[in-house]
From TrEMBL:
GO terms for molecular function: 2 iron, 2 sulfur cluster binding; metal ion binding; oxidoreductase activity. Its EC number is 1.2.99.2. This is Carbon monoxide dehydrogenase small chain. Coiled coil: none annotated. Keywords: 2Fe-2S, Iron, Iron-sulfur, Metal-binding, Oxidoreductase. It comes from Shimia thalassica. Gene3D superfamilies: 3.10.20.30, [2Fe-2S]-binding domain. SUPFAM superfamilies: 2Fe-2S ferredoxin-like (SSF54292), CO dehydrogenase ISP C-domain like (SSF47741). Residues 2-78 form the 2Fe-2S ferredoxin-type domain.
Length: 161
């Protein structure tokens, strides 16, 4: 066992972990931040995306010990200071970018990373960026609309798949 300390959603968090403990496990089990979903444990679905030092990371592929000293942001830290939904979350709600909700935390976190690097992505750029995130419900059409809306762009031109 070793101790890890990181800043999670703006607060210092510490805990004892085994060397094989994944960041997703640490967040969910030690810190009780269950918004980070684990869908595949193989880095294919993207439900577990968090930001580590500002970079989108699939937390099921990173050891907790690797995040020692890092700044980690999860879906729980995305709301506005007053608890209201942020722009991305609101766009997902307004444009029906979620159904069952299982992929939504990873989609929102991936979207935040995309819009940070590319504030006005094209539809093709959004679809390309989301290749690492699987949604089994929506067919991505409304997710793409949500991301376009969150970036302040017109959603009327989004083609149905």
């Amino acid at each position: 066992m070793s101790q890890v300390t990181m800043t999670v959603n703006g607060k210092t968090a510490s805990g004892d972990v085994e060397g094989r403990t994944l960041l997703s496990q640490f967040l969910r089990e030690n810190l009780k931040l269950t918004g980070t979903h684990v869908g595949c444990d193989t880095s294919q679905c993207g439900a577990c995306v968090v930001h580590v030092d500002g970079k989108a990371v699939k937390s099921c592929t990173m050891l907790a010990a690797e995040a020692d000293g890092a700044t980690v942001d999860t879906i729980e830290g995305q709301a506005e200071a007053d608890g209201s939904l942020n722009t991305i979350q609101q766009a997902f709600q307004d444009h029906h970018g979620l159904q069952c909700g299982f992929c939504t935390p990873g989609m929102v976190m991936s979207t935040a990373a995309l819009l940070k690097d590319n504030p006005k992505p094209t539809e093709a750029e959004i679809r390309d960026y989301l290749e690492g995130n699987i949604c089994r419900c929506t067919g991505y059409h409304n997710i793409v609309k949500s991301i376009m809306a969150a970036s302040g762009q017109d959603v009327g031109s989004i083609a149905a798949e």
